[in-house]
Amino acid sequence: MANVLIIDDDDAFREGLVETVQDLGHTPLEARSGEDALDRLREPPPPDCIFLDFRLPGADGLAVLESLRGMPGLQSVPVVMLTAHATSDNTIGAMRLGAFEHLTKPVGREDIAALLERILSAHADVPVAQVFTDEAPPRAPQLLGVSEAMRDVQKRLGRAAGTHATVLITGETGTGKEVAARVLHRASARAGGPFVAVNCAAIPDDLLESELFGHGKGAFTGAYADRRGRLEEAHGGTLFLDEIGDMPLAMQAKLLRVLQERQVTPLGTNRAVNIDVRIVAATHRDLNQMVSAGTFRQDLLYRLNVIPLHMPPLRERVADILPLAEHFLSTIASSADAVRKHLSADAQRLLVALAWPGNVRELANAMERASALAPGPLLTRDDFAFLFDAAVTADDAIPASLAELPLSEAVARLERALIARALVLAHGNRAEAARRLGISRQSLYTRMASLGLSDPA
């Protein structure tokens, strides 16, 4: 059985966790502050596992985690961070410093048992990491979200930040792929270096090589002087290749060579330039399907997909919709020095029921539009009528998010969105929603059950 050190100044929570650990057959050790914990950790033997609270008197949890990672014999001890209020920064910060897991209080007995079993069976070293600042600098990119889907993203991103490995970020348009790349850069050891972003879909094919690799004077018509490429500009930092799926095949081969050799040769020169760059690529396309179709190189996909990071669509992280909406309203008010506007109950019900095909970007735009046009400080469902107008206008178009899906999945997603919309318009009245959809009420019940839908709260 294991020795488990529990560091928490909340007596009731700590004692409850001690009891749980004892009931599971392990030996609990206790500390009420970071200083007490560090004193205990200096005495052998080291514990097999540590539960560490974020908020402690004196040194906080991240400071304690950073300190113990520098103590001999403690670099590989699994640490579970605990917090009553999970944020993007404290989740990423914990994982960046090598935490085994990050949990939000309260934590159930079954969760503790399963976690201890995972820890004791893993026998994996936790990487030593460098310092991560929990507080984001003003206007720094933030990967906001409290849903389980986003917590998983934050944890994986935090782990990736402790390495120099290439990262491939996938997800629909508007899910925040570039934000994730910027947060990853800020959380990594390369934060002091440049972050250079290139949209591969926005640059003509015949100019992309020069954009990435640079060129020498006279390399082509209009090349009046030497120019550094974006890869060289990103030396010591991160190069973000957005929409990598739109890169032409010929350019893919050249990028693959650069990733293998870590050298670039500007166009029109014989000068090889060594580069130290972390590559973060992103795409909304299915690269595996593109490989099968022969439009994307499989060997390049292998090079890019070292650490995969998938950004979930907003419809799969419903718990984040209202917090994000309030965040955008707060940002709008502070940047425009205007009255802070809030969402009414009916507006909140509407927002959580929508499918948001444009994801977080669409939600941000909706908040800005409603805030600018609403006559009062309280935003009602009427202030978001344009969301339905846009849906009606686009009736004959096939959204990009559906066009690339298998038929069965696209039909299910569309059916789910139409039913949710009808329920919102009918204020939750199922009979009225069925009438709007042109189906029987029993048919509506059956379809809702098969799609896992419930009435909007």
Q: Determine the CATH superfamily of the largest domain.
A: P-loop containing nucleotide triphosphate hydrolases
Helix content: 40-55%
The N- and C-terminal alpha carbons lie at a distance of 46 Å
What is the CATH class name of the largest domain? Alpha Beta
Estimated structural class: alpha/beta
Describe the global form.
globular
Largest sheet: 5 strands, parallel
- Mean pLDDT reading: 84
Structural summary, described in words:
GO terms for molecular function: ATP binding; sequence-specific DNA binding. It comes from Caballeronia temeraria. 46% of the residues lie in helices and 13% in strands. The protein has 457 residues and is an alpha/beta fold. It has three domains: 3-122, Response regulator (Rossmann fold, 3-Layer(aba) Sandwich); 148-310, Rossmann fold (3-Layer(aba) Sandwich), CATH 3.40.50.300; 315-451, Helicase, Ruva Protein, domain 3, CATH 1.10.8. The strands form five sheets. The protein has a five-stranded parallel beta sheet, sandwiched between helices. Strand 4, helix 4 and strand 5 form a beta-alpha-beta unit. The longest helix has 19 residues, at 407-425. The chain is globular.
